[in-house]
Amino acid sequence: MLIRTFASALLGIGAITIQVEVQISDGIGYFLSGLPDSSIKESQQRIISALTTLGYRWPGKRVVINLAPADIRKEGTAYDLPLAMGVLGASDKVKSDLFSRFVMMGELALDGTLRPVKGVLPIAMRAREDHFPGLIVPVENAREAAVVQGIDVYGMNSLSQVIDLFNGSTAPKPVKIDIQEEFKRQLERQELDFSDVKGQESVKRALEVAVAGGHNLLLVGPPGAGKTMLAQRIPGIIPPMTPEEALETTKIHSVAGKLGPHNGLIIKRPFRSPHHTISDVALVGGGSYPQPGEISLAHNGVLFLDELPEFKRTVLEVMRQPLEDRFINISRTRFTIQYPASFMLVASMNPCQCGYYNHPDRPCTCSAGSVQKYLSRVSGPLLDRIDLHIEVVPVKYDKLTEIPTGESSEIIRARVAHARQIQEHRFAGLTGTYCNAQMGSRQMRKFCRINDPGKAIMKQAMERLGLSARAYDRILKVSRTIADLEGSTEIEPYHLAEAVNYRSLDRDIWGG
Predict the structure, then answer these.
(1) What is the distance between the alpha carbons of residues 273 and 346, in angstroms, rounded to a whole number?
(2) What is the DSSP code (8-state) at residue 269?
(3) What is residue 189's predicted lDDT score, i.e. its pLDDT?
(4) How far apart (Å, rounded) are the C-alpha atoms in residues 184 and 212?
(5) Residue 243: which pLDDT band, with cuts at 50, 70 and 90?
(6) How many independent structural domains does the chain possess?
(7) Residue 415: in which H helix or E strand, if any?
(8) Mean pLDDT of 477-482
(9) Does a structural domain hold residue 444?
(10) 219 domain-assigned
């Protein structure tokens, strides 16, 4: 007897529906085809144990299972449930007339309990696209899958509950999530607020400019100056994610298995801060079975690289292409996977090995050559891709002891949101361009025109600082953002002057 159940295979942050064909006939043996990995091949023992616990027996006949399409590699333990139900259906232990209505995914414990799996959100989206009325997943994955509207999601605790569903013994209710309530629940006041930061007004202004235009940012300063404290508060001034951004971000975290059992939709902007010992594969993604890396997990959010020169050179250099293209291609012999990587890069570093070069009070013990050597750990091409280089100086005692009177993140976020609205209107109809940092050459020629006094400022900056063409473009983009924050339709000379001032590492005082 031939029975078909339906599962799903992950491809990047998407999925493809898999038919699990089970045929039981006279003979002896178990045959599994369709490019399964080792964890799927081992599923027979888990299924046999689960069936025995529930009072069923593995059929003493010839069992042939094919995972179609057979030319796509399948991996993971999530196929345990559809394989087990296929075997039960083909041996007439479970009614199979409803199998075509459901996609099923779940790992089986030896006692028949269902364990959570990765990638349920893109699986649910694919099931809806293929017009399946229902999806059966472990109860821990139910909220994640229920984010997708238009498909009934059933969270099950065990194989016995799934059997009862198909036999008609029970009629469980599908899991429902109120997306609006989910947004409201998570968009509460940020725990980390800019009102906690004392002093550093010029740095906070630079952060506001960077966030308003989606620009990459480098903070340079001595230990204890507040670089990490400032960076951690950046997500609080980025405008809230749209439903589309939240869904795409959640898909990436779902595929990577980073969603907890009680999480449905990721609403808050991601803030990823990998340690400097991270490998290049862990940062950009990849592996034998490709998984999204930190730059993809930071999609629509912030990637914070603390102590930038301590990262391996190869790790930093692999970021150059994603910083420009805002996606990363992972190529293997048989396939290529593309992961989105549209993130705001925020990095911090000490100015030298001892940390006190250019410090107003403490002397630096490094030689000029060692300062230059330390700074050169970060390559020029990577620095060119960072729009703002900001010097962070220590906060004076009188600032540290005063009562906090700085602006809250909410106030700053309102100004940023207004500037982003201007950019959304400006780039309406342009695919892939949503903020000033994403402008290409054609958009810059149209939206970043400068007058003759502005051209004189840029000429002087290019000659004195030895800026590259890419750095020139970055300054124009930043000046466009500064003008947007002011509500100005034109880029004025003082906008350009402020943008040039945000290129600290291009000055002679560093490493000279």
Answers:
(1) 10
(2) P
(3) 53
(4) 23
(5) confident
(6) 1
(7) helix 409-426
(8) 95
(9) no
(10) no
Q: Is 509 a residue whose pLDDT tops 50?
A: no
Are 347 and 304 contacting, i.e. CB atoms less than 8 angstroms apart? yes
Asked if residues 82 and 108 have their Cβ atoms less than 8 Å apart, the reply is no
Residue 435 CB burial class (10 angstroms; 0-12, 13-18, ≥19): buried
Integer Cα distance of 25 and 34 in angstroms = 19
Is the peptide bond prior to 59 cis by the omega test (within 30 degrees of 0)? no
Helices (H), 294-351: 294-297, 313-317, 320-325
Looking up tokens 């998984």 gives 291
Higher pLDDT, 471 or 106: 106
φ, ψ for residue 433, nearest 5 deg: -120, 115
Residue 401, pLDDT > 80, answer: no
Q: What is the pLDDT of residues 161-175, one digit of tens each?
A: 999 999 988 888 999
CB 88, CB 47: distance < 8 Å: no
Find the Cα–Cα–Cα–Cα dihedral 450, 452, 457, 461, rounded to 10°: 80
Sheet of 217-220, strands arranged across:
271-272, 302-305, 344-349, 217-220, 388-391
Amino acid making up residue 459: K
Residue with tokens 């144990």: 49
Cα 58 from Cα 79, distance rounded (Å)? 17
Indicate whether 356 belongs to any domain: no
- What percent of the chain is helix, strand and coil (3-state, nearest 5)? 40, 20, 40
Please report, for the chain, how many H helices and E strands are present, in that order: 22, 18
pTM: 0.87
pLDDT value at 477 more than 90 = yes
- CB-hemisphere CA count at 13 Å for 446? 8
CA pair distance 340, 433, nearest whole angstrom = 14
Is residue 217 within 8 Å of 344, Cβ to Cβ?
A: yes
Beta bridge partners of 17: 8
DSSP 8-state class, residue 80: H
R_g (Cα) of the chain, nearest Å = 28
Rounded to whole angstroms, how far apart are CA atoms 33 and 39? Answer: 13
How many residues are given for the chain?
512
Which residue bears the tokens 């997500």?
235
Residue 5 host element (H or E): strand 2-11
* Residues contacting residue 322 through CB under 8 Å, at least 6 positions apart: 284, 295, 328, 341
How many Cβ atoms sit within 10 Å of the Cβ of residue 171?
Answer: 7
Give domain status of residue 394, yes or no.
Answer: no
End-to-end alpha carbon distance in the chain: 80
Q: What is the 3-state secondary structure (H, E, C) of 198-251?
A: CCCHHHHHHHHHHHHHCCCEEEECCCCCCHHHHHHCHHHHCCCCCHHHHHHHHH
CA–CA dist 284, 325 (Å, integer): 13
Burial class (CB in 10 A: 0-12, 13-18, 19+), 19: middle
Residue ranges making up the domain that contains 38: 2-167
Under 8 Å between Cβ of 409 and 194: yes
| CATH at residue 144 | 3.30.230.10
Asked whether 471 and 249 are in contact (CB, 8 A), the reply is no
Amino acid at 347: A
